[in-house]
Write a structure and sequence with these properties.
- This protein is α+β, with helices and mostly antiparallel strands.
- The longest helix is centred in the N-terminal third of the chain and has 22 residues.
Length: 583
């Protein structure tokens, strides 16, 4: 298709200069520049509205990015991530900034953090490279600032594109490192299963972050990770050669140690090891299996039809826990639900920290057992289920515990963090457990029951009226879809607001499948298969650059926290184990 040349856009901007803001609608369309094509897909309604949606497309041969940068899905994701960061950095450097009123003058792209995620902000294929971004069309009051718009679209934007979307030899080293680092991390993750491990932490990794609100690595005083000899692995990477580090075996792993010695820091690195990280992040070779799920207590969340009987049973007044409903969960019931819902959605590795867990869910010591009889306690603590989760269903657990040595006898591996360094103290901890035998009784109502699937009923996610429900997202942990507001502060493995936007659009695909016939697992599978086949673009009927990839576990977590959710256990024929019994 032949598009009008760039000078046509210049003439249009000259013609509408000084007119009312809505006259900007006249410039929507595509324009051929010397080295790229500009698409103005949507013009904002006024200067205070969300900035306009634009795209620039460069033909792949003209971009000079060689095919080796996209020869695998991992490399393609990394290339797009690299280009997105370069576009954001260049726009910040070149763009003039605020112009006139409202949001005029801004040029924004969905800028990544420390993690490398699939994003709709950038796409690269054999035909073209395309950046999708937002631009605030300038105005004075509500009158078009035509000259400023010309400078933005005809001077600043071409300079950004020239710098960000065309390959130069000066980029080769950094770009190659970016894509090979991502590919190597994926290769390590793929090897975890054959090594009978659930996670890997490379020697030399820098786990500490700048602060609790800054995910960048700590620059001063960071201590390089050194694996204990008993847990050290060597893994060959496709690009970077052999690497050594600590392999965490399948089963039950306890992370212990004094306060402020790095227990939670290690767990945090592991929970985000489901993502690849940028070079020099410090965690680029901290790799966790993709189906790891962080579990924490979430007082006040809703629960709909979840079978929490493996952990909570025999409630007063005969209240059932095989299909438990509440709009105001306690810490223990929320944590039980989080585990059971996670297993239903496909989690095979659980990550828990005592600091964010309900104490009565984790353990009841022998003194409390003597005071409060087992018959009067409906909670089967996690300590009495964690082994069966592994031996029966192959679900591993990594648990941070600094206050209860009763877990020593249950854990297969105990790692002690001392001054941010790991030490394998398994033999010592097991000897202590044998020497100081606890009189604590194992609690629970018999063997671990099968985790059941649920069917989701109609109107579980009310969308309101109209063909196109309104979608709003607020940071990483809240969204509004139609008339449904969902908050999920306890879902800790989300790292970007653009993931939340993608999840909101995924709910639009999932909602029609909530018909009383499809199970949660079937709904998740259908949505994720659509994304796998068609990309994140399948989540919206318009091309947008503000969505990022997520897992089915996060989609399940958001659905489960909808207060309008209607779910019941599936028919008996569908009440099957999420996972085959462990051989």
């Amino acid at each position: 298709m032949i598009h009008p040349p760039a000078h046509t856009l210049q003439k249009s901007l000259q013609c509408i200069d000084g007119k009312g803001y809505k006259a900007y609608k006249e410039i929507q369309g595509a324009y051929a520049f010397d080295r790229f094509t500009l698409y103005i897909d949507h013009v904002q309604g006024d200067p205070f509205a969300h900035p306009s949606r634009l795209r620039v497309r460069v033909k792949r041969p003209a971009s000079k990015f060689e095919s080796l940068f996209t020869q695998s899905p991992s490399r393609t994701t990394a290339l797009c991530d690299y280009l997105t960061r370069r576009f954001a950095h260049t726009a910040q450097r070149i763009a003039h900034g605020a112009r006139g009123t409202g949001k005029g003058g801004v040029i924004l792209i969905d800028t990544p953090g420390q993690e490398i995620l699939p994003r709709t902000a950038m796409t690269a294929n054999d035909t073209y490279i395309e950046a999708r971004f937002f631009l605030g069309l300038p105005a004075f009051g509500r009158r078009i600032a035509g000259r400023d718009a010309q400078e933005m679209l005809l001077t600043e934007l071409p300079a950004i594109v020239d710098d960000a979307l065309f390959f130069t030899e000066s980029q080769r080293k950094s770009l190659t490192h970016h894509v090979t680092c991502c590919e190597d991390a994926d290769a390590i993750r793929e090897r975890l299963g054959e090594l009978n491990c659930v996670a890997f932490v490379a020697d030399g990794a820098l786990l500490a972050r700048a602060s609790g609100i800054d995910a960048r690595p700590l620059q001063k005083g960071a201590i390089a990770f050194a694996s204990p000899a008993s847990l050290r692995l060597e893994i060959d990477r496709p690009n970077g050669g052999r690497i050594t580090g600590m392999g965490i075996p399948e089963g039950i792993t306890l992370i212990v140690g004094g306060g402020f010695h790095g227990k939670s820091t290690l767990l945090n690195a592991l929970e985000l090891g489901i993502y690849n990280h940028i070079p020099c992040d410090g965690r680029e070779y901290v790799v966790t299996r993709a189906d790891a799920l962080k579990i924490r207590a979430a007082d006040g969340r809703s629960i709909s039809g979840t079978n929490i009987s493996p952990f909570i049973n025999n409630l007063p007044l005969g209240r059932s826990t095989t299909a438990f409903h509440t709009q105001n969960a306690s810490g223990s019931t929320s944590q039980a639900a989080g585990i059971c819902e996670g297993l239903e959605a496909g989690a095979r590795l659980l990550l828990l920290d005592e600091d964010t867990s309900a104490t009565n869910f984790m353990i009841r010591d022998e003194k409390m057992q003597k005071l409060v009889a087992t018959d009067d306690e409906p909670i089967t603590p996690f300590i009495d289920r964690v082994e069966a989760l592994y031996t029966t269903y192959g679900v591993s657990t990594i648990l941070v515990m600094g206050g209860s040595g009763d877990y020593f006898a249950t854990a297969h591996r105990i790692i002690q963090m001392t001054h941010y360094q790991p030490h394998d103290v398994t033999d010592k901890a097991h000897a202590i457990a044998r020497e100081h035998t606890s009189e604590r009784a194992i609690e629970g109502a018999g063997p671990l029951k099968a985790i059941t699937h649920r069917t989701l009923g109609p109107h579980s996610i009310p969308l309101g009226h109209g063909r196109h429900p309104k979608i709003n997202t607020y940071g990483r942990h809240e969204l509004v879809l139609g008339s449904t507001r969902i908050t999920f502060d306890d879902v800790e493995q989300l790292v970007a607001p653009s993931q939340t936007r993608a999840l909101a659009h995924a709910l639009l695909l999932a909602a029609p499948l909530m018909d009383g016939c499809h199970t949660m697992r079937e709904i998740l599978n259908q949505v994720m298969e659509t994304i796998e086949k068609k990309g994140l673009e399948a989540l919206s009927d318009i091309l947008r650059g503000d969505m990022a990839g997520f897992r089915s576990l996060e989609l399940a977590a958001v659905i489960n926290r909808a207060r309008t959710l209607k779910s019941v256990p599936a028919p008996i024929k569908d009440m099957v184990n999420v996972w085959p019994q462990k051989a």
